[in-house]
Amino acid sequence: MIVTIDGPAGSGKSTAARKLAARLEVAYLDTGAMYRAIALAALQREYDFSDASRLAFIARSIKLELDCGPTHTRVRIDGHDVSEAVRSMAVSAVTSYVAKHPEVRAVLVEQQRRIGSRLGSLVSEGRDQGSVVFPQADAKFVLEAGLDKRAERRHRELLADGEDVSLASVRENLLARDQADSKQWAPLLAPGQAVVVDTTDLTIGEVVEKLAAVLDSRFPKGTKRAS
Hints:
By secondary structure, the protein is of the alpha/beta class. The protein has a single domain (2-211), classed as Rossmann fold (3-Layer(aba) Sandwich), CATH 3.40.50.300. It is 52% helix and 16% strand. The protein has nine helices and eight strands. It has helices at residues 13-24, 32-45, 52-61, 89-99, 102-119, 129-133, 147-160, 167-185, 204-218, and strands spanning 2-6, 27-30, 64-68, 73-77, 80-81, 122-126, 139-144, 195-198. Strands 2-6-1-7-8 form a five-stranded parallel sheet. A three-stranded antiparallel sheet has the order 3-4-5, with helices on one face. Helix 1 (13-24) packs across helix 9, helix 2 (32-45) packs across helix 4 (89-99) and helix 4 packs parallel to helix 8 (167-185). 43% of the residues are buried.
């Protein structure tokens, strides 16, 4: 079974995807971490983020490995674990520049499909999982939330990780990312394409319960789920 969860940063999709994957006892794929890995590698090489060919070269040439457990996705570049490094504000500030290049997206979409084929069953989250990468997914969700709430959530996460950033700068970053990335999940907002959940006033537990309820309604106990 393939379940996709798309939506903007701070909507809770990463945490919801991890918890849902654990509940279903399947792998969790954080595709955003793949774009962040390319952004980190470009920062380390001091590449120009407007140079699509060089960014695509990074995507093709680095050894990008993902360990997709039911509660985590560990990321390695050329054998080095960068799972924490890719979450920095510096990487967040440039990831949208990486993700906007079709050449980079083509490389990573192919990698994501290979991962899906290898794993068979997974919960995959990102911005184009249900619309582009896994259009035949068994269930598709889009999580949304108000910008201020998302900024608060992301700000707390960064502070907990030791990042010295202001709430205003986090909000500005999210707004810029929304403008650059929202077209990726926009097709899923059409009627019948995905289940949309507004997480603004929900706890993460309530979000997971809503997602699980949809799956339970589609795949009652005793029904064989696709894999």
